[in-house]
UniProtKB/TrEMBL annotation:
InterPro entries named among the record's database cross-references: Nict_dMeBzImd_PRibTrfase, Nict_dMeBzImd_PRibTrfase_bact, Nict_dMeBzImd_PRibTrfase_N, Nict_dMeBzImd_PRibTrfase_sf
GO biological process, one term: cobalamin biosynthetic process
UniProt keyword annotation of Cell membrane present: no
Gene that produces this protein: cobT
Coiled coil: none
Pathway note: Nucleoside biosynthesis; alpha-ribazole biosynthesis; alpha-ribazole from 5,6-dimethylbenzimidazole: step 1/2
Name of the protein described by the UniProt record: Nicotinate-nucleotide--dimethylbenzimidazole phosphoribosyltransferase
Active site residues of this protein: E306 (proton acceptor)
Organism of this sequence: Roseitalea porphyridii
Record-stated family: Belongs to the CobT family.
Matches recorded under Pfam families: DBI_PRT
Superkingdom as given in the UniProt entry: Bacteria
Any one GO molecular function term: nicotinate-nucleotide-dimethylbenzimidazole phosphoribosyltransferase activity
Length: 340
């Protein structure tokens, strides 16, 4: 994307107001073929809906040949407020662990045959502490979104969104509280394992951040730049670019869904090309997916991030495409239909 000479967010506002819709013809072709496959009608349940969704958002028959997990990593100034049991240095250490193949996401990618790319977003430059200032200025936020857009360009036909960033469950909670209101406590949970005092510090940080920025939070992109972070902005950009490039997306847990929620607040149709891979055990996530009106594929008590829930769900999406494209029809297999 070439940035125009206007305000940095102008291009994103224009893009969000003019999102491409689904390919109804491709979806209809899936429904027609589905009815001919060697199984009772509807017996593959949600897999059938997933096959149709893949076609609608790619404009092609369902196929997943280059699935990719993109993990964006960023650091957060709010970690100074004691919001995570782990030190911020763990973000960079985990990025090294990803590169060495030692993380959970590496193993799920091996198990499900998914590509993995990790993007280190200026880890030595934590964003502003959201309880005291905006996380990012408009120019850096827009540039980071543009980076996220470029990161996935042309490289995949199924994008799983992941993140790494110590302190970012506080950031996710602040974004949700900023977008949806309620009480700060509604959106805060233990994250990596905060104890009661840690959860109280997180709740206080979220309440203070939203109070500080409150006058500006009607605009979802302002919520993103003031309360978000680099990995959050990059994930929002990647999800948006995928829509434009006709790449279906699987969102992961609380943190990646908070980035998606910003787009949804700007345009309620913005996540129609996305599935939510799983519902995380972080309590705010269930509340958030309900607000979005979306139905996560899996509920396994996971609360890790890194794209792990999305990557697990990618196995299901791959299977849905394979069933649709590979199964024989009743006619091909010489199997009698329902009425003989
Ligand atoms: C070793 C380790 C690996 C991780 N992988 C993902 N996260 C997850 O935990 C962090 C958010 O939780 P909080 O807000 O409590 O800091 C993020 O980095 C997220 O991706 C991890 C966290 C740790 C400690
Ligand atoms: O659901 C998530 O995304 C999550 C939960 C805990 C820690 N990190 C991420």
């Amino acid at each position: 994307m070439v940035l125009s000479s206007g305000l940095p967010f102008d291009d994103f506002r224009a893009l969000l107001a003019n999102l491409p819709g689904p390919d109804d013809g491709a979806a209809e072709a899936v429904r027609a073929r589905e009815a001919t496959l060697t199984k009772p009608a509807g017996s593959l349940g949600r897999l059938e809906a997933i096959a149709e969704w893949l076609a609608a958002w790619t404009g092609r028959p369902p196929a997943v040949t280059r699935p990719l997990v993109a993990v964006f990593a960023g650091n957060h100034g709010v970690t100074n407020k004691g919001v995570s049991p782990f030190p911020a240095s763990v973000t960079a250490q985990m990025v090294e662990n990803f590169a060495a193949g030692g993380a959970a996401i590496n193993q799920i990618c091996i198990a499900h045959d998914l590509g993995l790319k990790v993007f280190d977003m200026a880890l030595d430059m934590p964003t502003g502490d959201i309880t005291e200032e905006a996380a990012l200025d408009e120019r850096s936020c827009a540039a980071t979104m543009a980076f996220g857009m470029e990161a996935i360009a042309g490289g995949t036909d199924l994008l799983c969104i992941g993140e790494m960033g110590i302190g970012n469950t506080t950031i996710a909670a602040a974004i949700c509280h900023g977008l949806y209101g309620g009480e700060a406590a509604d959106w805060v949970g233990p994250g990596t394992g905060a104890d009661e005092a840690g959860v109280a510090r997180k709740t206080d940080a979220v309440a203070r951040a939203v109070a500080l920025h409150g006058a500006h939070l009607k605009d979802p992109l302002e919520v993103l730049r003031r309360l978000g972070g680099r990995e959050i902005a990059a994930m929002a950009g990647a999800i948006l670019a995928a829509r434009v490039e006709r790449i279906p997306v699987i969102i992961d847990g609380y943190v990646s869904t908070s980035a998606a929620a910003v787009l949804h607040a700007a345009n309620p149709a913005a996540l129609d090309h996305c599935l939510i891979g799983h519902v995380s055990a972080e309590p705010g996530h269930r509340r958030l997916v309900e607000r979005l009106g979306m139905e996560p594929l899996l509920d396994l008590g996971m609360r890790l991030g890194e794209g792990t829930g999305a990557a697990l769900a990618a196995g299901i999406v791959k299977a849905a495409a394979q069933c649709h494209s590979g199964m024989a029809t009743f006619e091909q297999a010489g199997i009698s239909g329902k009425d003989g």
